[in-house]
Amino acid sequence: MSWWQDMVCYEVYPRAFADSDGDGIGDLPGVTARLDHLKDLGADAVWITPFYPSPLADGGYDIADYTGVAEDLGTAADVDALTARAHALGLKLIVDLVPNHTSDRHRWFQEALAAGPGSAEREMYLFRPGRGAEGELPPNDWRSAFGGPAWTRVRDGEWYCHLHAAEQPDLNWRNPKVRDAFIEVLRYWLDRGVDGFRVDVAHALFKAAGEPDAGPGQHSDPWRNHLMPYYDQEELHPLYREWRALLDTHPAPPGAVAPRDRVMVAESAVFEPERLARYVRSDEMHQAFNFAFLEAEWDAAELRRVIDGSFSVPGAAVTWLLSNHDAVRPVTRYGSLRRARAAALLTLALPGSAYLYQGEELGLPQAHVPDDRILDPLWERSGRTERGRDGARVPLPWFGKQAPYGFTTAEADATWLPQPDDWAPLTVAAQERDPGSTLSLYRAALRLRRGHPAPDAAAPPEWLSAPGDAVLAFRRGRLVCVVNLGDGAVPLDSFALPGCSVLASDPLDGDALPPDTALWLLDSSSPEGSDDDLHD
User: How far is Cα 18 from Cα 357, in angstroms, rounded to an integer?
Assistant: First the structure.
């Protein structure tokens, strides 16, 4: 089994992780200095979100140079130092690849604007004439995922496509020059020693031929994403086979994993299991994010359906995640810390890979960001009706009784985004001293998970509960997980549960499992492992 098939990967949003130089903005040296936190937690890999030069129209996902480093985050030498330190700690390094769009400040786009209609430079992007007598209407009815039309008109009358912010023009992936350019980007970072790539909006690079109207209901139901003419096109898959072949063969520098041990992860917002399965065929992506699980309600029937559907591709590794830099934090989304802690044990018990987002291990809620400090383009493009994702990108609290909680030496009001005043009990330092803290829960769970791996990370769990039960109970090897999603406590003797309890998300009610609580047991009759963890 390859390392990535059951890895625990920790996502770092560098501007909100740790600041090393006192300017209030997290940076790469800050990440390097805090990598021991990830190692102590029990992570196997670290995924760093974009650290490339960017005007920050979309939090760094509007990239002006794919092989550069943003000045406020560090230098190329800082990337090398981070890579070396991660590898020295036994952590694999995954970086973001953002191929659907560039920044409007990227050299390619500036050259396209200057060159004018019909030029080779404009063929790097999706420039089109408008509709209407004077071309005054957008070329079609496509909507941006951030609100408003997915087209912006330039001075000479043409329109360019942007499925996200207007500052993020979409590339033309039918242009061989675009394909060639990204092969060189991949090679560059492989030569720098990265162990894999997370591919941003991997479902959106190609648009349907003729660019037909999409109709009503765009971006309203993620289960219909594959039906949109700008998503999930067949031409994606030959491209990803080309990238996979490169990853499997390009020489690795010292310290990096061997070529065939690299990993490529699709951020593909395709929810239909049969459609998502095409991204993880044996010669394409290694993994795809499981957004159906991320967005599932706290409901036993829905979660069981999503879990079962996630194993639709025999032999393919499955991923599980509760949060990321785009999602509302689980404490807030599920409505309580108690549910978030139970969801963590559910997630970490499932066979496959688990992705954690910074601060999840601290039980951080979604922070409120004042109107005048919101950076997310969703805020303005929605007419200030959607607050966006900034609440999940507030700087981490490391220690101390008040903001900035050790994130920076700058003043609290100088941090990249403001931190809440009530996070002192949630700092890493405070939770390290508390055996009942969420941080202690995550550390214990990851230690048990590592000690008792799933026999087959691509095989579904063995269900011990019946369909329709308000309790989810399943086995992965020696480890048994029970989660009560119902309204009342459930006597444990109502299930034929083998083994001895070793970890609970919250205290039990005598011999009953309270609502919104998860329990792990180890089956002492199984030959796998030892009994050492029975007293964790």
Answer: 14
State the residue for tokens 């290694």.
286
3-state secondary structure of 430: helix
Q: How many CB atoms lie within 10 A of CB 201?
A: 20
Q: Is 528 a catalytic residue?
A: no
| Catalytic-role residue among 11, 58, 78, 200 | 200
* DSSP line for 368-421: P--GGG---HHHHHTTS---TTGGGSSPPP-SSSSTTTTS-SS-GGGSSSPPPT
Catalytic residue among 58, 121, 267, 533: 267
Closest Cα partner for 90 from 286, 256, 317, 263?
256
| pLDDT tens-digit series, residues 360-410 | 999 999 999 999 999 999 899 889 999 999 999 999 999 999 999 999 999
Distance CA 345, CA 341 (A): 7
SS3 string, 83-117, reads: HHHHHHCCCEEEEEECCCECCCCCHHHHHHHHHCC
Is residue 200 among the annotated active site residues? yes
- Amino acid in position 341: R
Surface-to-core class of residue 470, CB atoms within 10 Å of its CB (0-12 exposed, 13-18 middle, 19+ buried): middle
Assessment of whether the complete model's pTM goes beyond 0.90: yes
Cβ atoms of residues 337 and 360 within 8 Å: no
Please tell me whether residue 300 adopts helix, strand or coil conformation: helix
Tokens for 168, please give them.
């993020």
Phi, psi of 338 (to 5 degrees): -60, -45
Give residue-wise pLDDT tens across range 142-180: 999 999 999 999 999 999 999 999 999 999 999 999 999
Task: Give which of 189, 355, 182 is closest to 262, Cα–Cα.
Answer: 189
